[in-house]
Amino acid sequence: MSYVRFGLMILTSTMVMFVLMYVNTYAWEHLFFSETRTYMAILMGASMAVIMLAYMLGMYSNKGLNVAIFAGATIVFALSLWLVRSQVTVSGPSYMRAMIPHHSIAVMTSERSQIRDPRVRKLADEIIEAQRREIAEMQYLIAEVSKGNVVESIYKDPPAAPGTVEDALANTLIAKLDLAPMPEAEADQVLDAAERCTFNRSPESDPVLWAAQKGDTAAMKLNGILVSLDVTGEPEEGTAEFSAPGTTLSLRMLGEDADWRQKAELVFKLDQGLSVGYRGFYRCGPT
Question: Which residues cross the membrane (predicted)?
């Protein structure tokens, strides 16, 4: 067997291993290029080169070239391992592109595992909701940071203070507040319109925003409370704002920037200073 064929075999195996690292993601829209997965594929390819050549030494008689392959594969393995462990080349957007498929795997296993214990099911459902929310937030941040919109500071809650259990139960940590998925039955309690529009962070999850398709009313769920919102603008024309005392939600259709992963952008702001953005899907019509 020729050394060229051996090299092509290792190269093909490395590429196949890179692709296979994505097969357990939950949805196509969660596929992003990952530097870390690239380094891991190269690391595994280098390992395979050493193992396969060791088993097939009888088929390759050039001792000098064999030593060079062993040495080169060892160096590639060590360099790839260092790149994976140090993350020295991984920037903010690269980090998030790697984390989205990672989160997607958690959604897939949490949703499809055959769980019987209600405690484990509750934990799995919480993981699903958290991962989907973070995926939508990372898609928003990838676009923001890639455009150079890097902030210097974010809202932080006051430091912890001594108190009682009653104090703890009455205390709301602003930095942890977030829009919650809102089933249609809950939207019916605060929204009368028959024709509605929704913003979903994921096609598979309940909307976090409901709005009358014709009118100026909308609704969200925040900290277990169904909140009615006033609407300014026309979402289907590009932008709209949903507001209530203390909060504003800004919707922007992505237009030419839209793709199969995302169609719209929603930014949730509280007057205290909290601001969180998501990318997802804004749709009008039957839910």
Answer: 6-27, 39-58, 64-84
Q: How far is CA 72 from the centre of its chain?
A: 36
Distances (CA, A) of 162 to 157, 165, 167, 170, 174: 15, 10, 9, 14, 18
User: CB within 8 A of 35, min separation 6: which ones?
Assistant: 83, 89, 90, 94, 97, 98
Domain boundaries, the chain: 3-90, 93-147, 175-285
Does the pTM surpass 0.85? The reply is: yes
CA-based nearest residue to 240, from 204, 207, 215, 203: 215
Which residue, chain included where needed, has tokens 């594929």? Answer: 41
- Proportion of the chain above pLDDT 70, given as a percent: 98
* Torsional class of 47: left (φ above 0), alpha (ψ -120 to 50), beta (otherwise): alpha
Residue found under tokens 């169904």: 226
Q: What's the pLDDT band for 98 if we cut at 50, 70, 90?
A: very high
Let me know: does 94 contact 35? Beta carbons within 8 Å. yes
DSSP for 270-284 reads ETTS-EEEEEEEEEE
What is residue 45's three-state secondary structure?
helix
Q: What is the mean pLDDT of residues 88-109?
A: 95
Beta bridge partners of 166: none
C-beta neighbour count of 250 within 10 angstroms: 18
Instruction: Please state, as a whole number, how many other Cβ atoms lie within 10 Å of the Cβ of residue 33.
Output: 12
| Per-residue pLDDT at 40 exceeds 90 | yes
Task: With cut-offs at 50, 70 and 90, classify the pLDDT of residue 238.
Answer: confident
Torsion of CA 20, 25, 30, 33, to 10 degrees: -20
